[in-house]
Each structure stands twice: as structure tokens, then as C-alpha cells.
Amino acid sequence: MARFRTWVGIALAGALSLSLAGCSSTGGKRAEDARKAASAQGKAAVNTPRWTFAMITHSGDGDTFWDIVQSGAEQAAVKDNINFLYSHDDEAQQQAQLVDAAVDKKVDGIIVTLAKPDAMKSALARARKAGIPVITVNSGSQESKKFGALSHIGQDETIAGEAVGDELNERGREKAVCVLHEQGNVGHEQRCDGVEKTFDGTVQRLYVNGTSMPDVQSALEAKLQTDKSVDAVVTLGAPYADTAVKARQGAGSKAEIDTFDLNAKVAAGLEDGTLGFAVDQQPYLQGYEAVDLLWLYKYNADVLGGGRPVLTGPQIITEDDAAELAEYTKRGTR
Asked: Is the distance from CB of 46 to CB of 77 less than 8 angstroms?
């Protein structure tokens, strides 16, 4: 792709035969039915025991970013003859309880996100004491090793933010608003930290209630109305980009809307110029490789990453890339 610029090295493993490269709304029954159909038609490519792996994320309900992560994990589970269990809760204590429940079920492996790592520490300690291998994914790269995980799969959020700052500089922007939709999410703070580190202009943080899109829109619209000097808005999840576009229209602002993460609507917005650029962390790959690496550990005691995160991004995506990616976003793998 002409303008695919990879800001970090992507770890490679020949055994995986794949290049290893924080959210959106809707999803629902159609996506779930498609996943079940794909799983039903798939056949295991191995004859290893049917181990049970549990993935527990900090996703809220109806989040298509996590639909993509889950889809990748389920595809790998079919191939690896894995009984795959998925659960989620956006409340940290509830997520920790789901990890405890997986430990009580004596699953053979756990995949978990660490958006709010302090709340997860004791649950992961229980898993470690029970001898259950853990892979962390998406968030918590700095805490992953300390908490005893085998590997972490995802993007370095600070590096991703730095890539955004560099891109804003190239576009001649001078004042940006970084919209944080989930207070307490360390990865989101790291993204904005990264933007501030490399952006030559001014960055302001705007905390919004991410569970209510009308609240997000009104808060951002008010900000853009009162500060006409803002010429860039950076949202931290794909669905918030569309809401930011509406807020820009309501405020009569000319600010460019840029976003972390990718979905079909973001790809369309890039193609028609509604959005400036997006940062892709390849969620399908995060789910797929998490299952694959747990399987490799159970089967062959393999550990990937050498104690460092296995990076799946970031990649800056612009209108030049959008048309080629549209096919993948529509089928739910990008």
C-alpha cells in the first residue's frame, strides 16, 4: 500500500506463518451468527488435545473492535482444536472476577487485557499459582511481564501516539484535542502522552463519557465552538470518529478528525475525505496470535517476544489505503 508506514518493527515467527503485526459500536447478532457459521465449517489443522482457552477483555457491550479481536481468536481456535471461551466486562473488578471464574474452571490458558492493571493483579496471581499460562493482549504491555504473562500482543500505545504527533506535524496542524472516552484506561493516557511528545503544536485533553454518544458529541461540539483555533481532533476509538464528525459539523469547525482504530465506517470516511487518517493496531491479529501463542506454548513450550511485547502496530492509514482495506473491514477482519 502506497502510504502504509509502519512505525515499529513487526516481530516475525516462521512457525506462525503470519506477520505479527483500545473501539466501536454495533456488532450484534449478525456478526455473532457469522462467527458461529465460520467456526462450524472450520476444521482443526492439528491433532493436539482439545484444550480450553478463556479470553477475558475489558470490552463493553456492542463493541465492534472487540468483535474483530474475538473473530481472530475464534478462527485460530478452530485451527488449533481449542475450546474457546469469551467473556468481557468494562468494569475492572467484574473483569477480574471473570478471570477468577476461568481459574476456578481450570482452563488450560487465559488471554486477558490489562486496561486497568491494578485491578487485575491478584486475579493473574491466582492464575499463575494454579499453573495456568497467561497471554496479555491489547493493553497492559508495561505490566504484562511483571504480572507473570508469557507474552503481550498489541501495539505500544506511547509509540502509537508519537506516530500520530508526527503525522499531525506533516499535515501542518497546530492545535489538537485528544478525546479520552474511558477514564482510568492507562492505554488511552499513553496515547495522548505520545501525541504530546512528538507534536510541535498544542495538545489539550478532553475527557468525555464514552458510554453515551450524545454526551460525547455535545462535549466536543462545545469545545470546538469555544475554541476555533483547534484544527485537529484525535479520537481514541473508531466509533468516536463518526461522532466527532457530527460535533465538527454542529460547531461549524474546520478541524480535521483523526482516529485510532479502524472499521468499515472509518475506511469510508478516509476514502471520501471526511477523516484525515487512522491508526490501525490490527485487532484481528491480536486475537488470532494470542490463541496461537498459547497453543504453541502448550504444545511445544514456545514463547514469542523474548520478554518484550509482540507489536501489531501502529500503522498510519490514509485515503490512499482506504479502498484496498474496504474489503477487509466489511468482512470484519480489519
From this structure: no
